[in-house]
Amino acid sequence: MSAVIEAVGLGKQYRRTWALRDCTLTVPAGHVVGLVGPNGAGKTTLLRLATGMLAPTRGTITVLGTPPAQGPAQLARVGFVAQDTPVYTRMTIADHLRFGTWLNPGWDDGLARRRIGELGLDPKQRGGSLSGGQRAQLALTLALAKRPELLLLDEPVASLDPLARREFLRGLMEAVAEGGLSVVLSSHLVADLERVCDYLVVLVASHVRITGEVSALLASHHRLSGPRRDPATLPADQTIITESHTDKQSSLLVRTSGPILDPSWAVTPVSLEDLVLAYMSRAAEDPSARRPQLGVVS
Amino acid sequence: MIRISLLQFRVQALVAAAALAAFAILLAVTGPHIASLYAADGLASCHAGDCQNDAGYFSFQLAAGGYQALYLVSIGIILFAPAVIGLFWGAPLIARELETGTAALAWNQSVTRTRWLAVKLATVGLTAMAVTEGLSLMQAWWAAPLGRAVGQGAPSSPLTQGRFTQLIFASHGITPLGYAAFAFALGVTAGALIRRTIPAMAVTLAVFVALQIATPLWIRPHFAPADHAAIAVIPGREAGGATGPGGTTLTLVATSLQGQPGAWILSSGPVNAAGKPVSITPAACAAPSVATSPDFYSCLTSQGIKESVTYQPASRYWPFQWAETALYLAAALALAATSFRRLRRRLC
User: Fold this and answer.
1) How many Cβ pairs closer than 8 A exist between chain A and B?
2) Lower CB count within 10 Å: N or C terminus of chain A?
3) pLDDT grade, residue A285 (50/70/90)?
4) pLDDT of A287 over the 80 cut
5) Residue in B with minimal Cα distance to A104
């Protein structure tokens, strides 16, 4: 399928600091994409560039094939839930739905009312009196009811308690299950992504470290542990992502398309969290060093 | 978009409506009494020339009746309304959306930011202009007898000022429209540039007040080249008169000009027979015996001293009203254009 977001050499500078620099990525359509990375990786900036709320300093970005926020038609195709899920504190829930109705030609009022009803929210309640979880749900309702083709969510659950987090993600998954919706969800909490995402983009310091379908990523990464050995002696098709060594033991996280044949290794599958952390910590070291030097960790 | 703009503006609109209503009630309760005093003093039926005493008595009556405070307060409200609008309607319009993060909500509906701002500026801006002009028109109705009394020769007092004086010029006619549009656009633009409500409010207030002070001093007098007149010295016009090494200083302060009722006097002072400004009393008139006697003025005249008055004739009132309103409206448009550019480029 075609790309929902396509960025080439994308950069955004605030005065002297670059919030995002030379970022090139392609996000395919038809997925729930997890955009992960440490704080300051540029996730928020990337999503705001994708909504058109920011204009790039360098490079280009297209969303659903056109530059973002090019006109009402393009705006109607993209939904956005911002960080901390802001809503108008003085407007009631009913006012927010009116806001959605009046500003979006494709507004699905039935969906909006059904969701508010299911959440048990009183339409007369004001935005300012909602809990964090309720506020997030209202923001999600507004974004879903405009019936976008692409939904962008910036750390929507970061500040929610575990229960609210689960309910929010369940609401999101229900919408995805109806079909026709691509989602890009940024988070630094991998556990949340594991539940909902089928595609992963790891962004570190503006650069994509790894990207791909979650199932394929998990299938191609293994944790190897066994007697200590020099990583340089590994087969050529095995790329080391991280390694740690003691005097006697070596523990490696490798990526390979083929099977692990060496019987001296104990092979265990990796979790998504391990995988993401591995790529994030690898990037913390010198990214140009493809084969890190042998080190001793006691 | 218009509906949502009105929905989000309804609280402010209610406050404005309440303020207008309170102002209207205050003026409606006291206005008829002023009109009845005007009629009782015979001013409604007097004919040019013999109204001056009645007009003076009328203004005295009003001052004694405590109307001076109400009059000045009502003018103050008209003058400050644009500032209040700029602060509380203008500055938060964009800045609060950015501060609270709701900009992400507002600008991700199926409406472009340009249209969002255009509709907000139009609905709130036109309301701002209507509210301010409404206050002004109500006060003009209330103070109409005072204006007529000024025309009938009432002596100058806080209650009876010519319409070219700063307080009246800036609170009547069409200038309130220009001020309201300008102050609102100023607040919006300050908010868009500074991105925080409170600092934007502070900047809006400072800039607006500074301009309101600068306008009558340095801008308004130059809408048309001023007229000059050299007239015979009129007794009672000299002020000060300190004696120094060079002689006794001479100043003449004109507050009105014969044959030019309602003219705006910009400056006045003594000139010699050659038309050059003088600042020292001629030696012949400086002797204490002369300087303190009624002959002082005839002495000045015999020395060729005349009084030079620089002024804008009353007939320029409306051209000046249009010029000033147009100037403020143009500035408001320029500010609005800045907001549009800012909003299109970089935010959040």
Assistant:
1) 81
2) C
3) low
4) no
5) B110
Q: Which of A54, A84, A106 sits opposite B101 (nearest CB)?
A: A84
Determine the pLDDT at residue B168: 93
Tell which A residues from 11 to 50 touch B, by Cβ distance under 8 Å.
48
Residue type at A204 in one-letter notation? V
Cα–Cα distance list, A104 to A108, A265, B109, B261, B345 (Å): 9, 58, 6, 61, 23
- Report CB contact under 8 Å: B111, A72: yes
ipTM: 0.87
Residue A88 in contact with partner chain B when CB distance is under 8 A = yes
Q: pLDDT (tens digit, 9 = 90+) per residue, B24-33?
A: 999 999 999 9
Q: How far apart are CA B166 and CA B217, in angstroms?
A: 9
Q: What is the residue whose two structure tokens read 């609270």?
A: B100
Per-residue pLDDT, averaged over A110-138, amounts to: 94
Is a pLDDT exceeding 50 seen at residue B312? yes
A20, HSE (Cβ side, Cα atoms, 13 Å):
29
Scanning every residue of chain B, which has its alpha carbon at the shortest distance from the alpha carbon of A74?
A: B110
Neighbours of A217 (CB within 10 A): 20
Which residue in the set B4, B104, B110 is minimally distant from A86, CB to CB?
B104
Alpha helices, DSSP H only, in chain B?
2-40, 52-64, 67-85, 91-100, 103-106, 113-142, 144-151, 166-171, 175-194, 197-214, 283-286, 288-291, 296-302, 317-345
Q: Which of B4, B100, B348 has its CB closest to that of A103?
A: B4
List the one residue out of A273, A279, A224 whose CA is nearest residue A249.
A224
